[in-house]
Amino acid sequence: MTEVTVVQETATDSGLTREVLMNLGPQHPSTHGVLRLLLQMDGEIVERIEPHVGLLHRGTEKLAEGFTYTQIFPLTDRLDYLCPPSNNLGYALAVEALLGIEAPVRAQYIRVIMAELSRISGHLLITGALPLDVGAMTSLLYTMRDREMVMDLMEMISGVRMHTSFCRVGGVREDLPEGCVERILEFCDIFSARISDYERLLQNNRIFLARVENIGNITGEDAIALGLSGPNLRASGVDWDIRRDAPYEIYDKLDFNVIVRQDGDCYDRWKCRVDEMRESVAMIRQCVQQMPEGDFLIDDPKIAFPVNKDVLAHSMETHIHHFELSAYGFKVPAGEVYTAIEAPKGELGYYIISDGSEKPFRFKVRAPSFVNLQALTERTTNMKYLADVIAMLGSLDPVMAEVDK
Amino acid sequence: MATEFPLRRIVDHFDGKVVVDAAVTDMACVTVKPADLVELCLFLRDDAVLKFNFMADICGVDFYPEMPRFELVYHLYSIPFGWRIRIKCRLADPPLAPTITDIWTTANWHEREAFDMYGIVFEGHPDLRRIYMWKEFEGFPMRRDFPLRGYKDKYNPFGVEKKVEGEQQ
After folding, report:
1. pLDDT score recorded for residue A380
2. B24 band by pLDDT with thresholds 50, 70 and 90
3. Backbone phi and psi for residue A144, each to the nearest 5 degrees, phi listed first
4. What is the ipTM of this complex?
């Protein structure tokens, strides 16, 4: 915190009250990244919150206009860096819709497994970090331990822990490695037993509850007007999940519950995520069970690299396609598309306008965190003190890389 | 997704002011003039048959060198019925659009983003400031005539030399 700016000074019977402007962040553990909040304070009571975002702005959308469609995958990884597979999935769906193709069924299953694993990883961070923000250290260490297991799975599948870039237009990069399915199931077994532990650790903890229960309530109507989506919206009693209401990939073949809670306070937003992790585990189990054998990448030399690399040594035609694909990318028919998926943070939308070339004419990301963070500026009920702002911020679960794009 | 979408209802209600964009295939799409935008949004939100209560996204588009160059694209969603609609609104030059922050609070930051990136001015917006770039920043980075590396100055030695004439803003 730097120098204090005095906004207003009023003499009262009990002395002098001063309204001051105070910076929270940009470097503060509870802001989960580089977020600067300018708070107008009357003592400990927060009068006004002004978020200053953009400190992590990398110009993803501008960069994407100069990249081929395949090159954009790594850019999408870096939006919500806790859950790159979800971001990849949404983007791949958008390009596939423009091309009018569909990934093979096995690829769809692999994508969904990875997206759900990443949802667990993202939710694990926040179920541990929100208690940390309000003073309970233990939970974060436990959840990070489990998050590490997800990271190991990601590494096993894609070779990298975080920025997987595993999706391709028309499928995924590789098939699941040998023994991966067993490891995923093992993770499901270990993890589903542990969720209840974390829940018990916190949901009966009076100190934690005092900090989050009935704090920052958002009504369903306000939440919709604020554009909240994902767990933040469902915690306010709005029953909407894109996975169920507009199923993409193979979500219509999965049996899962949409977690809805009624109060819309910080506790509900936290609890909603805990319960969603259970559903994700169930979904992963079903996926593993249902997943058929078959191709993991579309067989179209104009769009995807050949699966069998040996062909490259014999077939001139394959070689030419390979070269063209590497050097120029593939052309996408002119048109426009908006695809929305249920990312862990909420509705992740990609709006792409194609002019028929190898690069998008306009690439727009509807980042859920960006919209969710805006809820801080609104005067929600029961968010009076500075400490409540920390709880509110933690429960909204913004990832600054996604906010700033 | 959407089973039957009463698009006709919107077109009939506005009697020529709202035109269906048939070239778009992924969802229902209408074009509207900036002057009728607020009325259309209010109708879409409040009409009992449509209930487009969720404003998903506002996207600025720059069609430079085509003139007039700017367009705003709105994506709405109806949570009760599961419909999506896209509204396109071509802006005149200089780009001016009415704000819809009174209809959906969420539009506030989206409009600030469009202002920051394209210089589209939203009339009636309560707090129209840059959102990503710092306030001294000159130019609008997402415009197509804005170089990817920015303009050269003492902080940005790799930027493009600024042309003396031709460059406004």
Report:
1. 65
2. confident
3. -65, -35
4. 0.89
Quick check: B106 and A338 CB within 8 A?
no
Q: Which two tokens stand for residue B31?
A: 């074009």
Residues 30-89 of A with CB under 8 A from B: 53-54, 57, 59, 61-63, 65-66
Q: Sort out which chain A residues have CB atoms less than 8 A from B87's CB and list them.
A: none
User: Is B108 in Cβ contact with A227 (below 8 Å)?
Assistant: no
Going from the C-alpha of B97 to that of each of A197, A289, B71, B88, B125, the distances in angstroms are 53, 52, 10, 12, 10
Cβ within 8 Å, pair A246-B1: yes
Q: CB–CB of B134 and A61 under 8 A?
A: no
Digit-coded pLDDT (tens) for A52-97: 888 889 889 999 998 999 999 999 999 888 889 999 999 999 999 9
User: How far is residue B70 CA from its own chain's centroid?
Assistant: 9
Q: Closest partner residue to B57 among A65, A225, A351, by Cβ?
A: A351
Domains in chain A (CATH in brackets) are: 5-52 (no CATH), 60-404 (1.10.645.10)
C-alpha span between A71 and A49 (Å, rounded): 38
| CA gap B167, A95 in Å, rounded | 34
In chain B, where are the structural domains located? Answer: 7-94
Q: Count other C-beta atoms under 10 Å from residue A69's C-beta.
A: 27
The predicted pLDDT at position A14 comes to: 67
Q: How far is CA A290 from CA A105, A109, A110, A118, A250, in A?
A: 10, 8, 11, 20, 10
Across the A/B interface, how many CB contacts are shorter than 8 Å? Answer: 88
pLDDT at A386: 85
Tokens describing residue B125: 């917006």
Q: In whole angstroms, what is the distance from residue A323 CA to residue A352 CA?
A: 26
- Taking residues A302-314, report their average pLDDT: 83
Q: What is the per-residue pLDDT for A381?
A: 65
Provide the 10 A C-beta neighbour count for residue A231: 33
Does residue B75 sit at the A interface (CB-CB below 8 Å)?
yes
Q: What is the pLDDT of residues A10-37, one digit of tens each?
A: 777 766 667 778 888 787 777 777 888 8
Question: Per-residue pLDDT tens for A145-164?
Answer: 999 999 999 999 998 888 88
Mean pLDDT, range B96-110, rounded to an integer: 91
CATH code at B7-94: 3.30.460.80
**Strands of the B54-62 sheet, one edge to the other:** B18-20, B28-32, B83-90, B70-78, B54-62
Task: Write the burial class of residue A205 (CB in 10 Å: 0-12 exposed, 13-18 middle, 19+ buried).
Answer: middle
When pLDDT is cut at 50, 70 and 90, the band that residue A112 belongs to is: very high
Q: State the average pLDDT for chain A.
A: 88
Cβ within 8 Å, pair B26-A97:
yes
Burial zone of B112 (CB within 10 Å; 0-12 exposed, 13-18 middle, 19+ buried): buried
